Amino acid sequence: MQKNLLEKIAGKLTLPGIRRASFYFFLILYFILCPLVLFYAFGFIIRPHEQKLVQTGLVSINTYPSGASIYLGPSRYIQRSPAILSELLPGRYNLRVFLNRYRPWSQSFYVSAGKAVLFDKVLLLPKILMPRTASTQAFVNIIPLEGTPSCILVKGHTFKDDYLFDGSEINTEPLASKIFLYADARLQDLMTIQDNPQAVLTLILQKEIKYLLLLPAKDSLADISAIVIRPPERFFLDPNDTSTIYSLHKGQIDMIKPQTGAIYPEYVENIRGFGAKDRKLYILSQEGVLLRMNQDKTATEIILSDAPLSASIFDPKGIYEIRPLMPGTFVFLGNEGQLMTNHLPHRICDRGCRGISFDDQRDRLLFWTKNKIGTVEFLNDNPDNDPFSNGSVVQYIFEAGRDIKQCLWVYEGSHILFRDADKIFLAELVPQGPPHIEFLVQVKNNTNIFYSEETGTLYYLDAKKEGLEALDIVSGNAPAALPQAESTENQEGT
Amino acid sequence: MIFTYSRCNLDRRQRTLQRFFEILPGATSWGILLGFILLSLWEPLVAAALIIAFDLYWILRLFYMNIFLALSYARLSWERKTDWLKRIDDTRDIDRSLRRPQAASSGNKLPEIISEVINRRELAELKNSGQTVPSYDDIYQLVIMPVVRESRDIVEPGIKSLSEGAFPSRRILVVLAVEERSSPEIRDAAQRLAAEYRGRFLEFLVTLHPDGIAGEARVKGANATFAAKVAVGFFTEKNIPFENVIVSCFDADTIVNPDYFNCLTYSYIVTPNRTQASYQPIPVYHNNIWEAPAFARVLDIGSSFFQLIEATNPEQLVTFSSHSMSFQALVDVGYWPVDMISDDSAIFWKSYIHYDGRYRVIPLATTLSMDITQAKTWRKTLVNVYKQKRRWAWGVENFPILMRAFLGSPTIPLRQKLRHSFKLFEGHISWATWPFLLTFIGWLPTLFAGREFSHTVLYYTGPRITTTIFSLASIGLLNCIILSLLLLPKNPAKNTFWTKMGQALEWLSVPFIMIFLSGMPALDAQTRLALAKRLEFWVTEKERKKAADK
Questions:
Q1: Counting one residue from A and one from B, how many pairs have CB atoms under 8 Å apart?
Q2: ipTM score here?
Q3: Where would I find the PEGA domain in this sequence (chain A) (predicted)?
Q4: pTM of the prediction?
Q5: Domain range summary for chain B, segments of one domain joined by +
Q6: B46 and chain A in contact, CB less than 8 A
Q7: Residues facing residue B482 across a β-bridge
């Protein structure tokens, strides 16, 4: 009986028939599933109570260290950081993160439909900071070497008291041991530039000025005094060219090649501004024309020739350091602390800018004055090719400083470490709202700090002991990768 | 329809059309790939949504194909025990056979019931067609084996299998079609083989295809055509009607299974309008399967699987590799194209156009075994496999000719034209683009994500959905692994649990194979066709270990 039935079924079925039926089945399935999956992908859910389709958003949180408990409003999530909390209805939320022995972290934010709010670099600070002693020796100051992972530890007033420190160990031999003739010289000045791994040191030895080129990575220190033929007002370095130094003297640039000993006096004349990057020279002429040319002075291009615009940007006197940050974006740093950019509104800081630092991962510029710290985000919102017509967003993240001396990008540009007088603070930049600012430590008066991005450690001189202290801000491995999104249903009660 | 199935000697309009349709597949494939890359850069949100829609389409199609792979494999295994000679005998008195009690009554199992149901359906169809049923004893087989540089080691096992099969070898004419440009050793070996095996067959001919015949390219089809013309003389002289001759054009390394010709003859007898059909077995690559590198083994098992799936869709099945057809049809359509590399599929399309769409391919529930491309070194094997797959992908050369024929044919129904042209076009485009989309381009929106896209929900849900889809795809892969283990012959060396595990793990090379030995050769072939840089016929290198080496 059963077999007869099988036979009848088999008799009715044909392969093309099965194939056709399957084809239509899968076709219908696709047309049903595809919109559903796409709706889900864009964050749409059906609200069970209202039977209404709504678009949700999500929040991604990644803390260092990981494993922190997450609270969103009154609900605690089973999942610990890093986590993605999805299917959040548009609205304001309060996110709180707790981890034993660490300071609690919270942030209020707004979730928009289809959008993700990212807190992807949350640094949890220990409730009690535990600095460790890196050296018990007493130091006078720290001189960070920008562009290198090293700093100079100053122990006394002569060059023989200066030691190189690379974040892991202090060289037992003073810098002067390489050029012992200058042991009694005094370190007068130091020129570094972001991303360039060398520094030009200016020393004074019995009223005579000497110039040394320091390359910490190669542990090399060379005397270049013989090829610096005129006392420079300042040096310029190309971040991507370690073979060339430019020195400024009365509006003229001498080009110096330390490795070959070649000198090109008065290589560029009558300048009001100068900069170099990728073996290209950027020159602001006395007439206010901004030019770019190859290092060998070929392929000259005019970037700005609009005299009124130039006059509105640059002051009539003074010399500007031109820093090309990325294609189409430059900043101009005047010797009175003027900070200008080619992006509108051009003048960021009329005077008093004490320093700048560029975060090339997020294309943001950090600048600071005595009392304020600000960031500049460069926009590319002008369809024309005019580099002076794009906009920028200037945002002040701290405006109550007493005497801001140093600012550094920390943890891949997510935080700013700054020294205000003798106090060190850490500011976390959050997507919405003001930054979180945490006090870290007090340092010896009028001394610098050194931060090693490689190890995530802050070095400073202790206010009382004057010894070198180390404080791990981001130490060990990077935070874990983000897991899959978790819906709001996956939560515990309050 | 009278149509010259060639790209040569065209008038201006036809030449323009030919170029347009030559460029179309390559341009479409590149357009899709570059379009996705650019979209990932400029509109990552749109690109990510399209990728999800595509991934979903792919997974459903994978499941769909897996169903038919399993069904087709089941049919193949069920028919392994079929007594084809008895089935042929049943065609002598169809009424009596149909009246006979069904298998269910005699306590048979489901596979046998299904096999018998199919058999009865075929007999009933033949009866309803009212056509005369040829006698088994009147059917002759013509086997043409083109040879260029295949040594005796490669050719002889195939000849031997022809003589040792269940079909009377005295009704088989074997033609070893040797190229004049072949080395003297190859030519001598062919003559020695003929002398040795002649007595076992109706006749064993060796033809020498001259080089440089006007209008011919150096392709296999030209050699086979030359041999077929010699066979015409033979059968005419023997007064054997062409409609009673089934011609099989086999690669030189083809070994037929003992039941092949009986299965083929049964299908030929029961097929109404039997002369207007090709007969397609399932090609398997078992001759040297345990000597070939894992990647080549997985790839060729994949080819067999593809053919198994295709066999379930006879309405759109196209001939591939070694297959058979009516000699009458071959003569009527003017033999194989003599200027095309893809002679296996081209002969189907040529016949399809000649008979105004009344030509089809009948899938055979039997296998033919061939060699996996192999060379002396692993690296050379890789290069050879790449070249072989590019030659297969060169089947896209049929597309422009077919489109010209379709545009000029008022007799082929429009629906059929659309179905065939879409399938051919879509098949080649997906061949060249899917591997890149699935393994590489699909992840670009996330990799290239700018600030704006990385702050959307889709940036987070997209990879999650894709990962889920890929996890589901492993079910399809598992099905393939199981079927491959069932389909493979026993490893003569050892067949332990660990060997089987090793064979299963070989399937992990699928992403590499997809990109480098499937997508890239196909894209290469389409690009060459679009740029009018035609492919020369490249004879696949075959290596088999001699018995003493094993």
A1: 98
A2: 0.87
A3: 57-123
A4: 0.79
A5: 12-75+425-549, 82-129, 136-383
A6: no
A7: none
